[in-house]
Amino acid sequence: MKENDVKKCWEENAEAWTTLSREGYDIYRDHVNTPAFLSMLGNVKGLKGLDIGCGEGHNTREIAKKGAFMAGIDISEKFIHYAQHREDQYPLHIKYMRASGLNIPFKDESFDFCVAIMSLMDMSEHESAIKEAYRVLKKNGFFQFSITHPCFQTPKWEWLKNEKGEKTAMICGDYFRQPNGKIEEWIFSSTPQELTDKFNKFKIPIFTRTLSSWLNVLIKTGFVLEKFAEPYADEETLKKYPQLADTKIIAYFLITRCRK
Ligand SMILES: C[S@@+](CC[C@H](N)C(=O)[O-])C[C@H]1O[C@@H](n2cnc3c(N)ncnc32)[C@H](O)[C@@H]1O
């Protein structure tokens, strides 16, 4: 699948994604992945950062609130429009730009850090995206990104459930098949019925890779691997959102931090 087709899908997803995530229905992002991501990010006050594949800007804003000077790029015009609109309403001095992570419109060594939050596995060429992040980083700068976990979110997967219908394990397959933009259709699982009726399901082209492929590309590019996390919901969170119990059965996300 070509970049333009990827862009087309995300333009179509942008309105529903922005509305539903801003209503708080992306509970896996808001209560599992983002808290772990921000915790690993640590102190970025005063640093210059780039969010690659920033979507409507939720996580870019979270990082800007930690005191970083942020820029955000996304392949979708609509997402950048929604992000900019929020910036105009509640300024955090974030500079948004419509651009591809495969061709970042900044000079070499422009940033102290780059992040890509759940976006790299949606890009058609992960190697080019990682090389671009490396290029725009200052020497000793870091790149932190989260992706769907390569070992569990494989091209083929299915939950095993017990007699009560509770998830107990996951069957994964086709690990070594690298889908070139296979479209997955889904909507945030906690979206109420009246809204699932209103919006079409997202159509997401996926480009998942094996774990060794991700790690080898990082190493080949010149990054030094620094830290990993496989976040899951803690007990406090589970009391509020029992649906997140499945985050303790398999790892949905892999967060990686590496340095130039
Ligand atoms: C799963 S969403 C994540 C959005 C955001 N980072 C978040 O955490 O809410 C993936 C994002 O990657 C963007 N994307 C896909 N391919 C891209 C590319 N080549 N360059 C920049 N952004 C891209 C999509 O438009 C979408 O906004």
TrEMBL record:
Q: Which domain of life is it from?
A: Bacteria
A GO molecular function term, named singly, is: S-adenosylmethionine-dependent methyltransferase activity
Query: Where does the Methyltransferase type domain lie?
Result: 50-143
Decide whether keyword Transferase is in the record: yes
Keyword annotations for this protein, in alphabetical order, are:
Transferase
Pfam families per record: Methyltransf_11
Q: Which Gene3D superfamilies match?
A: Vaccinia Virus protein VP39
Key word Transferase present: yes
User: Under which name does UniProt file this protein?
Assistant: Methyltransferase type 11 domain-containing protein
Q: Which organism is it from?
A: candidate division TA06 bacterium DG_78
